[in-house]
Design goal:
- It comes from Geomonas silvestris.
- Keywords: Signal.
- This is Lipoprotein.
- The protein has three helices and twelve strands; from the N terminus they run αββαββαββββββββ.
- Helices cover 19% and strands 29% of the residues.
- The strands form three sheets. Strands 1, 7, 8, 9 and 10 form a five-stranded antiparallel sheet that branches. The chain has a five-stranded antiparallel sheet with strand order 2-3-4-5-6, with no helix packed on it. It has a two-stranded antiparallel ribbon with strand order 11-12.
- By secondary structure, the chain is of the alpha+beta class.
- It has one domain.
Length: 176
C-alpha cells in the first residue's frame, strides 16, 4: 500500500514539473554562453528636441534631462530606453542648500526607432532616489532581449528584483 502511494506521489510530481516546464515561454533558456550585459548610464546619450516632441506631453518640460540608452539594434530595428535623469534635473532646478521636491515624473519607456512606446519600466532609471536601478539584458542580440531589473535600496526591505520583462514577438512589445 505504501509503495502504491509513493508511486502515485512520484507521478504527481512528474506531472507537476512537466506542466510547469510546458508553461514557460519558448526560447527563454539562458545558456552558459548567454551572458547578461549591464546597461551603463554613462553610455546613454541626451536626446534632441525633435525626439522629445515625439514623446507624450508629460515629457516636454524635462527636455535637456532626457537620455536614450541603446538596448537593441539589428538592421533597421532598434530599441532604446528613454529616461529622465532626475538627479541632473534636481541639480539644475534646486540650489545645493534646498531639498528637492519629488515630482510625478513620467516612467522610463522603451521605444523603437520611431519613438513608438513598446513598454515601460516599473521605476525610474538610473536612479529613483534613494534607490538605484540596474538593468541587464542578454548579450545575444538576434531578437530584442529580455530585460532584468534589479533595484538597490537602502530601505528596510533592502535590494529586490522584478520579474524579467520579456519581448512579446506577436505584439512586438514588452509585456502582454
Amino acid at each position: 500500500m505504501v509503495a502504491i502511494r509513493e508511486i502515485s506521489m512520484h507521478r504527481c510530481l512528474v506531472i507537476l514539473l512537466i506542466s510547469i516546464a510546458a508553461s514557460l515561454p519558448a526560447n527563454r533558456a539562458v545558456g552558459k554562453d548567454d551572458k547578461k550585459v549591464l546597461l551603463k548610464p554613462e553610455k546613454c546619450r541626451a536626446i534632441i528636441q525633435s525626439q522629445t516632441e515625439k514623446l507624450p506631453a508629460a515629457w516636454k518640460k524635462y527636455n535637456g534631462f532626457i537620455k536614450a540608452c541603446s538596448i537593441f539594434k539589428s538592421g533597421a530595428q532598434e530599441i532604446n530606453l528613454i529616461s529622465i535623469w532626475i538627479q541632473d534635473y534636481f541639480d539644475f532646478k534646486y540650489p545645493k542648500d534646498m531639498t528637492p521636491v519629488m515630482e510625478d515624473f513620467p516612467r522610463p519607456v522603451l521605444v523603437d526607432q520611431g519613438f513608438n512606446v513598446l513598454g515601460s519600466l516599473p521605476e525610474y532609471y538610473p536612479d529613483d532616489p534613494p534607490r538605484e536601478l540596474e538593468i541587464y539584458y542578454s548579450s545575444k542580440q538576434t531578437t530584442p532581449p529580455d530585460l532584468f531589473v534589479r533595484v538597490h535600496s537602502p530601505g528596510a526591505g533592502g535590494d529586490y528584483s522584478y520579474p524579467p520583462m520579456m519581448w512579446n514577438v506577436k505584439n512586438k512589445s514588452y509585456g502582454n
